[in-house]
User: What shape does this take?
Amino acid sequence: MNEEQLRREMVNYSHKIYRSGWVANHDGNLTARLDDSRLLCTPTAQSKGDVGLEHLIIVDDNNKVLAGTRRPFSELQLHRAAYRARPEIGCVIHAHPPTASGFAVAGISLDPPFMAEPVVSLGKTIPLVSFFPPKDPRLDSVIEEGFGKADVLMLANHGVLTVGATFEQAFLRMELVEHLAKIALVARQLGGPIPLDASVVDALAKKGRPSSAAKGRENLQRNVSSSAPEPSVDANKIVAQALQKLR
Ligand SMILES: [Zn+2]
Assistant: This one.
C-alpha cells in the first residue's frame, strides 16, 4: 500500500470509528508507520467524523510535524510504545468504545475467555493494563508488555488500543472486543459468563495465533503475499475436536 492509499484508509477508518460510536468530541486517534521514524497521524482537536485528507500530518521521532498544518495529538506515547513492542505492525487505533471502555474504567477484565471464536481471532488474553498519567515512563512499559502477548489492550480508566498490519485488521479487533464486552455485560446480568475449559482455550489459541508476535508477522506476510501457509492438519483436527466438545 502506498502513502496515498494509506492516507485514504486513515480517513475512511477515522469515519468508521466515529460512525461506530466509539468516540465523542475529539476522542480517538489513528496512526500508520511510514518508516522507522515517521508516523502518519490524525490531528488533535478534530472530530474523527470530520477528518479529511487535508488534516493528516506526518511526525518524526520527536513528534515534530514534518508535513501537514495541524498539531499532533497528546496520546502519541501509546502508539509509539505499540510500534516498539511490535516491529511487524503497520497501524494503531485508539478509541473509547463505550462497553469495552466501561469494563476498563470499572477495572473488570474480559479474561478468562468464555467464547471460542474470539480466542481464535484475538488469542488467549485481552490484557487490562494499569492506568498511568501521560508521559509517565511506566505507561510505556505496560503497553509494551501488553502488546508482547496480545493485539488488543484495554486501558484502565481510559479506553482500548488495538494494533494490526492494516487499519482494517486493527478496526476489526476493536469491533470484536467491543462486541465481546457487550456479550459479557449481558452475561454478567444473568449470573456471569462461564469460562471455557483451559484445554479448549489452548487448542483454539494454537489454531488462531501461535503467539502474538508470530501471528503479527504472519499477518504482515498475508498482506504482501497471497501465498500464506495453510494451518497444519493436526491444528485443524485439534480445533475441530475442541469445537465439537463445545457443541
Ligand atoms: Zn484516549
Observations:
- Residues 27, 75, 94, 96, 158-159 surround zinc ion (CB under 6 Å).
